[in-house]
Amino acid sequence: MSIDLFNEIERRKSCRKFLNEPLSSGQLQEVEAALQSFDLLYPDVTLTHRLATEVKGMFVVHAPHYLVVSGQDRPHELESAGFLLEQLILWFSAQGIGCVWQGGAKSVDKDLSGNDLIIIAFGTPAKSPYRELIEFKRKAITDITNAPDDPCIQAVHLAPSGMNFQPWYLEQTPNEILLYKQKLVTPQAFRYKLADLDLGIALCHYMLACKHFGKPFAFTPSTTLPAKKGFTPFGVISSEG
Predict the structure, then answer these.
(1) Residues 125, 21: contact at Cβ < 8 Å?
(2) How many CB atoms lie within 10 A of CB 122?
(3) From first to last of its 241 residues, what are the pLDDT tens digits of the chain?
(4) What is the pLDDT of residue 111?
(5) Model pLDDT, residue 190
(6) Which region, left, alpha or beta, applies to residue 82 given φ > 0 means left and ψ of -120 to 50 means alpha?
(7) R_g (Cα) of the chain, nearest Å
(8) Cα distance between the two ends of the chain
(9) Domain limits of the chain?
(10) Among candidates 51, 41, 144, 126, which has minimal Cα distance to 87?
(11) 155: closest CA among 210, 111, 100?
């Protein structure tokens, strides 16, 4: 029986302290199987992954396992990674496994790290991997959309993002949702390069909400949307049958 990952959106929490013990080989096989079962944002974008027990970099969390995801230096890889891996993040939550995005981490193996995109730390959490809805710290929902009562957009409102920037805006029109990426300003624009990954996470939450509410989901990237001050066009979401 498949898990409705939508139910984890309102309780998932980033975990930064783990027990110093690895998951079993059976659990790691289940992680691999789960990764193979998730929806893809772009079926023609190829991502690879590997497990590691050590990474380096700023703000690295010490965990028994790290999932390192790589691309091929081609377009749309970051949002594809965000879309895929947020499903894994929520799957971890459903299993009681703790995890956290590691945006500043790097592989210790230089021979393998050339096209690495992102790393996730995971393992048995030292504390509860869950939180109450009131514990989420997010922008006002009216800052990210003109349709705050849309339940699919409400799911996006809870999506995690690097440095909690929430760099997206969802403009509801009569037939579709126009998705925009925020233009970060100095110094954030120089320090933070994972906004596309964040947009993929947001799209994952929207997709899972569509599934939960029995609506179809499709996303088409586009750079030709109507202009919006402070944002750049990212694509169009369709959830009409």
Answers:
(1) no
(2) 26
(3) 578 999 999 999 999 999 999 999 999 999 999 999 999 999 999 999 999 999 999 889 999 999 999 999 999 999 999 999 999 999 999 999 999 999 989 988 876 667 999 999 999 999 999 999 999 999 999 999 999 999 999 999 999 999 899 999 999 999 999 999 999 887 776 568 899 999 999 999 999 999 999 999 999 999 999 999 999 999 999 976 5
(4) 67
(5) 58
(6) alpha
(7) 17
(8) 25
(9) 5-123, 137-238
(10) 41
(11) 210
- DSSP state, 103? T
- The two structure tokens encoding residue 95: 């299993």
Residue type, 183: K
Task: Write down the CATH superfamily of domain 137-238.
Answer: putative nitroreductase (tm1586), domain 2 (3.40.109.30)
Q: Go through the chain and tell me how many residues it has.
A: 241
Q: Do residues 44 and 206 touch, judged by C-beta distance below 8 A?
A: no
Q: Are 158 and 53 in contact (CB under 8 A)?
A: no
Select from 3.30.2270.10, 3.20.20.370, 3.40.109.10, 3.90.650.10 the CATH code of 5-123: 3.40.109.10
Listed in sequence order, the residues at least 6 apart from 42 whose beta carbon sits closer than 8 Å to its beta carbon are 76, 80
Whole-angstrom distance, CA of residue 128 vs CA of residue 37? 26
Predicted structure pTM score: 0.95
Side chain identity at 109, as an amino acid letter?
A: D
